[in-house]
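Purpose: get a first structural picture of the assembly so the mutagenesis plan has something to point at.
Setup: two entries, given in the order below. No constraints added.
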Amino acid sequence: MSIRDLEEQIVGEFMVFDDWMDKYNHIIEMGKDLPKIEDKFKIDNNLIPGCQSRVWLHAGFEEGKVFFYADSDAVITKGIINLLIRVLSGQTPDEILDSKLEFIDRIGLKEHLSPTRSNGLTSMIKQMKLYALVIKTKNGEN
Amino acid sequence: MIFDVQKLRVDFPILNQQVHGKPLVYFDNAATTQKPNDVIGSISDYYNTYNSNIHRGVHFLSQKATNAYESVRDTVRKFINAEHRHEIIFTRGTTESINLIATSFGKKFLKPGDEVLISWMEHHSNIVPWQMACEERGALLKVIPVSDKGDIETDSYLKLLNEKTKIVAITHVSNALGTIVPVKEMIATAHSRNIPVLVDGAQAISHQQVDVRDLDADFYCFSGHKMYAPMGIGILYGKEKWLEEMPPYQGGGEMIQDVSFVRTTYNELPFKFEAGTPNVGDAIGLEKAINYILSIGMKEIAKHEHELLTYATEELKRINGIRIIGNSDNKAAVISFIHETIHPYDIGTILDQLGIAIRTGNHCAQPLMDRYGIQGTMRASFALYNTKTEIDILYNSLLRTIKMFS
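Result (structure tokens, whole complex):
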């Protein structure tokens, strides 16, 4: 599925919620469901610092596609990470680099991505795109 | 005057609003307090009727603004019981006050191998300026440890003071733990060895009577915005003898006597340390804030806040999984807490949805968080306009929030 289609799917999912409570309960559930990252990737080198919650991010490359693995010490942050991974993991570097990720705004979670929120999410998206760029560049050379 | 919190709340228009559809509960007062009508009105009055550059103008408005500004200096002097009006220096806030001393005192008095002594519970504002000064002068930064309970370890303090110690810089009230530090005793100890002491009073100034002469502080720093005054105005109190000896901090207008390209002579105190056009409007707001506090009575305010602290502490202790960080017997109205499994960011996010403003994070005191082996805390801090009902709302909202995560 394309990034665009996945974004639409998530927006649709969030449409059924009547209030913020339901929405956050869903995000918390997704935070709990985020696939566990291997301990060997949960190292300082993979740490994206935000002064409120920490985010670890690792990326792999298989058959032309980028796969992301991440974790955080805050559940709401993990929930949003889960959404981002659902949208971006398994896509090509170009698709990742071109993605606008407008769904975050559309489902009303924009404030979590404000640069002043310092929860690591803004830097995480930057880092995901950076991984895509590095992988693309490396691959171009081969 | 009878302390009537409901009546006082009317003075703060911002409190009367809904956030995410819930009545606002503002518990982030250690970050900044809200401003009463008197303060807000005085600023627009200044810009509406007598805004003018001060000290040099011969015209009516400039005279009026100058008189108003200089009268604030007198009000502040009286408020903290300083001896002279020229010992009151206007700054942008506590941070600038500390930077000023670290820089100017450092230039004059710090030599390679000298030591500056701070504590483990300092705000970054009372750590980094000293680190910078030490780096510049080749001096060393020494740190007084803090106990598990959240108190300064007095024995260590005594051991750390030595002939190389050139200044002690210590907070009056910890912004992260709420501990009221026994600064008067610590100053007396330092003075017995002829070591001056700077006190970071940012968290103390609006919660207790501060008498700089009784404390015998050499420097006392605070911000207007944590005492119901506007942001961007702060105070540095310094004993005359130190301020006279120290070189200026910044150069520019106001701080000079005579300028030629060969040599500039500096103005006398307090102007020597007040380069550039000052923040007249906010200074006037600060005076209104002081008068507002005095009209209620500092003792009344302290008593009310202490009741809130006691009540909130009891209530939070009733919640399973909540642990209070900072349990000194002597605390200001700041309560820092964590949940054993839920991250502060998660709880803070949900509390925000419920209309409650608390602070989460490391409170600009990373070394202190490391000391307790935690990433950060949630912090509720109270001001004169907070109520027990609001603490009930926090209690119930916390129960609801914790349930969402379990």
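The longest helix of chain B spans residues 60-80.
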